[in-house]
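for the recovery benchmark. tokens below, seq after
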């Protein structure tokens, strides 16, 4: 059986090369409802949305349902705009 050229050979009596650990990012728990800090940006609201979907095992039917279920305080949208949950599960601003 021929050696695979893509796999480096280890010489007899030689220790294998040092293994470099890959950093693992621990998931950040996102509390749903209760005493959590109010999100100040759309990105922070999206983190809460992901936590909601993980804990509830479903997508909210509307942004309003999401806010009511999580009891977060949402920063007011700019005049003439409102928050919606897009198909790609991002929170976006649209005209009223």
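predicted aa per position
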């Amino acid at each position: 059986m021929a050696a695979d050229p893509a796999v480096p050979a280890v010489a007899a009596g030689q220790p294998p090369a040092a293994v470099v650990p890959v950093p693992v990012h621990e998931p950040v728990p996102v509390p749903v409802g209760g005493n959590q800090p109010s999100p100040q940006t759309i990105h922070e609201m999206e983190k809460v949305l992901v936590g909601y979907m993980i804990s509830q095992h479903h997508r909210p039917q509307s942004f309003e349902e999401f806010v009511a279920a999580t009891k977060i305080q949402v920063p007011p949208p700019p005049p003439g705009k409102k928050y919606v949950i897009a198909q790609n599960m991002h929170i976006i601003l649209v005209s009223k």
